[in-house]
Amino acid sequence: MTTHHHSTDDFAELAELMRDERESAERRAPAEARARRIRRRRGLIAVVTVMMLVLAAVGAYVVWALNAPLSAPSVTSQVPQVEPPAAAAIAVPPEGISAISIAGADDYFTADVSGGWAAGAADERRPIGSITKLITALVILEARPLASPDDPGPTLTFSESDNDLYDKYYVLGATTAEMPTGSSMSQYDALSTMLVPSASNYAEAVSTWAFGSQGAFLSATQTWLAANGLGGTTVVEPTGISAQNTSTVTDLLAIGKLAAANPVVAAIAATPSIALPGPGSLSNTNTLLGGEITGLKTGNLGEGTHNLLYTATVEVGADAPLSVTGVVLGGFSRDTVGQGVRALLDSIRAGFHEVVVANKGQDIGTYTTPWGATAQMVIAENASIFTWSDTPIEASMTPSATVTYDDGEQVGTIDWVAGPHTTSAAIEIEGEIEPPSAWWRLTHPSELG
To answer: How far apart are CA 310 and CA 350, in angstroms?
Structure first.
């Protein structure tokens, strides 16, 4: 067995080696701790930086969400449609044939009535009686014009042959007025005596005076009828006592308009009565005169042949009155003709009316917001429109920019059109749209502008 003996030097060397290693370890420890501290500090900085970035992003989002513009409320609305009233029931005179023409209503009346109504054939020729005297007056005034109703014109002195006309027409049963031999009268007064009481002897006397003879007068009359396109009218003598004096309702409407456009004839035809030396006090045969009836001439040949060519100014509530020209041929009596004309004019007047198109507070729509608030769209005022018969009433809505959506805020207008007339009313908000909560803003970013 071998025994090893270690020397003191060996132990000393080992102790020194261990001491060196310890000292070396002690020298390394502070550096590693410092490195660990640096790593921890860097990690903390990174965490703080990330947290600050997150907080900044959250803050920016909150600021944006709380201040971003909101989407506009959605609108559900419907323009209220107005049912037009029933069509006007026009009371066309039941007797004979008739026609009416209306000026000042072109925008109201549809093409199917051509501005008026007719009963019977427009080209059927019928005796016109003393309406002939209206034609006689127009023909005379073309040859011997008067400047105005205030112009008396030349003086006519009646001869013995003129005086004989009184007896001639009296025997024939025609209307006459005195015409003493040697008496005189202005042209205007002579025409008035011919037209107002419908004196047949004056019709022949004045037409002979104007043209020199009845032949010349009739020739001038044919020329005048042709020049005015009145091919449906025949005149064989100046008074209308002959049933051969005929015309159509179409021609007579045209003649009526020519008469109404002549200031002298229109003024005479509108005169209810005259009082002249010789003839005395004479009343107009057109007993409808007065009020809305302004002229023109009756023409009667007995029962069943009562005629009337008339003009009227009819107030219907429009901007201007209607100017009416009408004719009835072949009425049973003067009274029934008058009743028919008045009923016709009344029915036209009744066909015009104010139609209510909206009532204040009428609901026409809803505003709805993404956050659930609502408010109503209402018409702010009562509205009506003036129209004729069953004229269609069209409505349209014009929105305006909304700002606050407060109660009473105007948000547009609604307009109605009927023929030539229009009316409108404001649209406003009823109720109030409250803004959304902060929480709703923060949780609904997609609803924000």
So the answer is: 20
Choose among 249, 283, 222: nearest CA to 131: 249
Q: Is 228 exposed, middle or buried (0-12, 13-18, 19+ CB in 10 A)?
A: middle
The reply to whether 369 and 341 lie within a common domain is no
Give the whole-angstrom CA distance, residue 151 versus residue 144.
12
pLDDT tens digits for range 377-428: 899 999 999 888 888 899 998 887 776 788 888 888 999 998 888 999 999 9
Which range, of 28-42, 63-77, 82-96, 271-285, averages the lowest pLDDT?
Answer: 28-42
Total domains present in the chain = 3
Residue 386 identity: F
Residues 6+ apart with CB under 8 A from 324: 100, 101, 102, 103, 310, 311, 312, 313, 314, 345, 348
Instruction: Classify 410 as helix, strand or coil.
Output: strand
Cβ atoms of 267 and 180 within 8 Å: the answer is no
Evaluate whether 275 touches 262 at the Cβ level (below 8 Å): no
Highest mean pLDDT pick, 256-270, 361-375, 411-425: 256-270
Q: What is the pLDDT of residue 111?
A: 41
- Which of these three, 325, 350, 375, is where a domain ends? 350
| Domain membership flag for residue 6 | no
Interval 143-155: pLDDT, tens: 999 999 999 999 9
Of 158, 213, 156, 221, residue with least CA distance to 188: 156
CATH code of the domain covering residue 326: 3.40.710.10
Residue listed under structure tokens 């024939």: 172
- The closest alpha carbon to 293, from 279, 314, 308, belongs to 314
Backbone angles phi and psi of 171, in degrees to 5:
-65, -35
383 shares a domain with 253: no
| Greatest alpha-carbon span in the chain | 204
In a domain, 288, yes or no: yes
221 and 172 part of one domain: yes
Report the distance separating Cα 91 and Cα 349, nearest Å.
11
DSSP-assigned letter for residue 246? E
Q: What is the mean pLDDT of residues 186-213?
A: 98
* DSSP 8-state symbol, 435: P
CB-based contact 118:99 (threshold 8 Å): yes
| Averaged pLDDT score across all residues of the chain | 87
Full-model pTM: 0.76
The answer to whether residues 48 and 54 touch, using CB atoms and an 8 Å cutoff, is: no
**Sequential DSSP letters for 84-143:** --PPP-----SSSEEEEEEES-TTTS-GGGTTS-EES-TT--EE-GGGHHHHHHHHHHHH
Distance CA 344, CA 92 (A): 6
Residue type, 215: G
